[in-house]
Request: fold
Amino acid sequence: MPEIYIYVLLAMIGACLGSFINVVALRTLSGDDWVRAPSTCFACPRRLGFGENLPIIGWFRRGGYCACGDRRFPVRYLGVELVLGGLLPLAFWQLDLAVFVSFLPFILMASVIFLTDLESFIIPDRVSLGGMVLGLVLATADAPGLPSLQQAVYGGVGGFALIYAINAVYKLLRKRDGMGFGDVKLMAMLGVWFGPVSLLPILFAASMAGAVFGIAIILLARTAHAYQPDHQSEWGADRAPIKIPMQVPFGCFLVPAAFGWLLFVPHALLA
Reply:
């Protein structure tokens, strides 16, 4: 089979997995069964047909609306399908085949974490803790690309301690939590899969991305003169700025930083 067809096939598989991850993330948050329950409309109990379940195509076929036409899906659901459709071929291209197979479960679990954190500021324990356990099992089995069991343990403990300590210092200074405990467990999971050498680079990249994102949101709000009427403020008489959500889900920056480490850091550093 020509190589181009392998990448096209992986893009199709990635889009299908993206659609599945959307379902897993939403049903994990709602507590519904995502294994046996059939695909249904988000706004009504009608069961979806085959064409409506097709990733990407099904979205455009419905015009971005649910099957009954009463509710518009957030564009991020389409985005997950597109991103996974591109991420799998990229990972296959960048990594050795054995490393690609080893890290495929991580890519899927991290994608679920990204979506649940983005959706509800929640990182489910069954995913983060399950990811830690799976990483330790694969490290024990000397899976290609993963650190040794000793390094995986060091990475898990180090990741947990690093975020926990940062949050403790922040809480001491600001009298409130800077990050949720889900971020602590997510960083421990990343440490298990990538080893202790990855912790500071991943944390630095995620922090820089979060800072740039936050600054961009503030500047865009000011540039657009986003404000509420009937309130005195420095923005002008009878005008007050709309409250900007300063609590950004940090997991949404940790996960892309981890993907960057996996795909673009020389393989020798992963072991």
Notes: The chain has two domains: 1-94, 122-271.
